[in-house]
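tool_call: predict_structure(chain=1)
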Amino acid sequence: MKRAVELARRALGSTSPNPAVGAVIVKDGALVGEGYTLPPGQRHAEIGALEQAGQLAAEATLFTTLEPCCHYGRTPPCTDAIIAAGIKEVAVAVIDPNPLVAGKGIERLREAGIAVKMESAEAAVELYEAFGKHIATGLPFVTAKYAMSLDGKIATYTGDSKWVTGPLARAEVQRMRRECDAIMVGINTLLADDPQLTARDDGGQPLERQPLRVVLDSHCRTPSAARMLREPGTTLIVTSSDAPGSEIGRLQQAGAETWTSPLHEPGMLEMGEVLVELGHRGVVSLLVEGGGITLGSLFDDGLVDKVKVFIAPVIIGGMQAASPIEGHGPEFMSQAWQVERTEIQQIGPDWLITGYPGRNAGEG
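tool_result:
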């Protein structure tokens, strides 16, 4: 199952709105086939593993990170292929989160005389947290990512932020980008950093598949010469009715797509509506890279599902130095977000804290 999870991670970011699945076939203690989900319309993980195993699949055991599908979509049911191949046992890590089909794949296999067992794998559960939210709500799973110093700053008072963390932490960010469907930043981050927001390989070259780049820019201040507009992939500028039509046209001429969002308050986009639009566009997992106003708005509206915070062993100081989370914030500590199920990982000299924000039980 550990190998199946590794295979599934290869597919993250390329299969949406389908889930990324890994499958392994074992016979007489030897691995005889493996596969992972290909982009929509192409083969599922189980089919890839069965094709590689060939006749060796008969009387073998199949390990899969997600319950095999038993319904027709863009491809035929995987359960039919598993039964036809003569698999004798299937180990499943996670039941399909889709309530319309949950458990039906396992039921179909058992009806055919195949033994099915559940094999717990926490790493596999994490694989489907975004898919589970999207299938239930139509909204993307929102991960807030930022890097800060020991004193909670993301840049100096002049705005310089290159680099808060070291190269190994930045390489981890590239992995996050490769595994998401979209990356979002606010206009202030774009103007300050002129980021590329690309997913790159270990050599620093942009990959063929790029996540959607989303910029929150209510007044169309994005420069036509912004670097991300010259990168492979699609840039979506989320603007508002306050933006002049001529400026919207300018950005479209520069290569961006645009979408007009309602305003939550003067100058502030309605973040909930932005997420609805991204969900309609098939964005299952959204990585938000800043800045403080964007992240603050998401936290104020209770729209953050997960946090990934890099902490560097440096102290920046400065009253005017930027902080990672702005917005209105809570009035009382009892209303603060408590990060639960935390994990701490050292990456070079830096630390990565991962967790899930939840309201304090003491909030009235």
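agent: The two ends are 43 Å apart (CA to CA). Proceeding to next step.
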